[in-house]
Amino acid sequence: MLRMTLLGIGAMASPRYRPAGLLVEYGKARVMIDGGPRAAPAGRLDRWLVTDARCELMPAIRRLARRRGIEPGVGRFERGRLSITPRRVAHTSHPAFGYLIRAPRESEAARVRAHRPLNEPRPGSRRAVSVR
Q1: pTM of the entire structure?
Q2: Which residues contact 68 (CB under 8 A, 6 or more apart)?
Q3: Is 44 domain-assigned?
Q4: Domain contains 69
Q5: What is the number of domains present in the chain?
Q6: How far is CA 25 from the centre of its chain?
């Protein structure tokens, strides 16, 4: 199942919020997009992608990523059925990117099983349900 976790929503020098960062997890793959000090995930990472290779936070992101044995940068990531692809965006006077994140959707049956309350019958079952 694809899981995306915001680790920060602020700008670099925001006194109130951690720098904007997104942790993408699918199966055993873990990829960080942007982030930085106070917005870095715990545990291992397979890749650290950035949306702006010239951003003010790059020195700090490089230090954090290198401690994990990876080099941050703009790029593509593929592992199994997870694909993260950079897409150029008009944002600044130099190259900046967004990312297209693709992973297969769960089947409807899997979503129903995962989210069905324990006392609710399975879809299609003939068990009667009493309503009070």
Answers
A1: 0.75
A2: 44, 45, 48
A3: yes
A4: yes
A5: 1
A6: 6
